[in-house]
């Protein structure tokens, strides 16, 4: 469970700092359904605030329900798109939750807030004296640094040196410190090593490790899970009540978003959860290792917050497919091919810019999932577009330098080879024994390397009522602490 022990002295300092900087905190209830629960006086102020502005009121935009505009927006239905059959080639309906309209352009601002807020309202994190450390393969440290800035506390962003240029340029304006570790998406161990070094050598830091912080799990269980359900109900009203929610497909990353699947399985008991990873580093599929280019998907380990026992399928995605489709979806000749040759509408083609590299991989997972289970037009599969192409413009430039200008012929080849040809290879339906194998991989990272107790690991498998299920019930208790904090701040 998330530790909610109160440290009164540090809590008092956090409250005082919030008073000085006009900071109030949103509750999980408000993040789930902001249009109903955020006070009108806050909504009125948001009408003059940009989505990425460094303003504490943007904490109330940590939700899937933001109006899809960059300035002055309020709230409505969750942001999602439905992919057309002309693109996917399958009968099943794929709905994609859009992360672009969070502050920072990525839903990781929510996951990081889920990790930070319990420590803030209990005083376990002293915002007046400590720096919040955000170890990440990219977007999580951006979200954590942004939240820290809104809360007027210092932050340390840790990410691999090989991540896209856009991330570093923006972080330089937000984070107090930036530490670039060796490698790229695959080098999570190097990130852990750096956080352990900071923990051992500095007394002014507190680590918020998304791979093990159950606040990450809880935020996605409560907020993303509800948003996906609302999107499904929205699409059901369009097509009729005969639709079946078949499941959700998500690249692993920190595995936090997979918690939404736990929520959805409780609502739709026949639905399934599929976890994706890069084929070039198939840790879940066959205990493999390697390097890949699907940014934000850390690997060579199983995150502590991954509820493996509740996961039904593992899907490996070739990063060559994701990189090729990044060009097809965003180069002018690629979009022209989609509209002129495939019959994709201009609106649907424009919406593909909502997909970053991991979002494209999530889409491919959903297509494989639908093909494997032979889903029909009555079935709906959900996935998440973590961020948009705006985080990868430099990657498009690099692809142009490496492979030349994009032509209609290249578009046709990329569609045929990397999307139309998608099959159900490199996929594994997880039996009880396979799930146990994947769960056991946690031992090497978390017990041997990171000092977790083996009894904790066993509890995740044998006593879920003490672990994941207990965390699921903590949102209301944390909301009470947030409300007490806001009352003490007095704004």
Written account of the structure:
There is one protein chain. With 491 residues, this protein is α/β, with parallel strands linked by helices. It contains 23 helices and eleven strands. It has helices at 8-20, 28-32, 34-37, 40-46, 85-88, 108-122, 139-150, 165-171, 188-201, 214-239, 259-267, 283-286, 319-330, 332-340, 346-351, 357-372, 393-403, 408-420, 432-440, 442-449, 454-462, 468-472, 475-489; strands at residues 80-83, 93-98, 131-135, 155-160, 177-181, 205-207, 244-251, 272-278, 313-317, 379-385, 427-429. The chain has a seven-stranded mixed β-sheet, sandwiched between helices. Strands 5-4-3-6 form a four-stranded parallel β-sheet. Helix 6 packs across helix 7 (139-150) and helix 13 (319-330) crosses helix 18. The protein is globular, with a radius of gyration of 21 Å. The two termini are 30 Å apart. The model has no long low-confidence stretch (mean pLDDT 95).
Provide a quick synopsis of the model.
This protein is an alpha/beta fold.
Q: Secondary-structure blueprint of this entry?
A:
Elements (H helix, E strand, L loop, with lengths): L7 H13 L7 H5 L1 H4 L2 H7 L33 E4 L1 H4 L4 E6 L9 H15 L8 E5 L3 H12 L4 E6 L4 H7 L5 E5 L6 H14 L3 E3 L6 H26 L4 E8 L7 H9 L4 E7 L4 H4 L26 E5 L1 H12 L1 H9 L5 H6 L5 H16 L6 E7 L7 H11 L4 H13 L6 E3 L2 H9 L1 H8 L4 H9 L5 H5 L2 H15 L2
Parallel strand pairs: 2-10, 3-4, 3-6, 4-5, 7-8, 7-10, 8-9
Antiparallel strand pairs: 1-2, 9-11
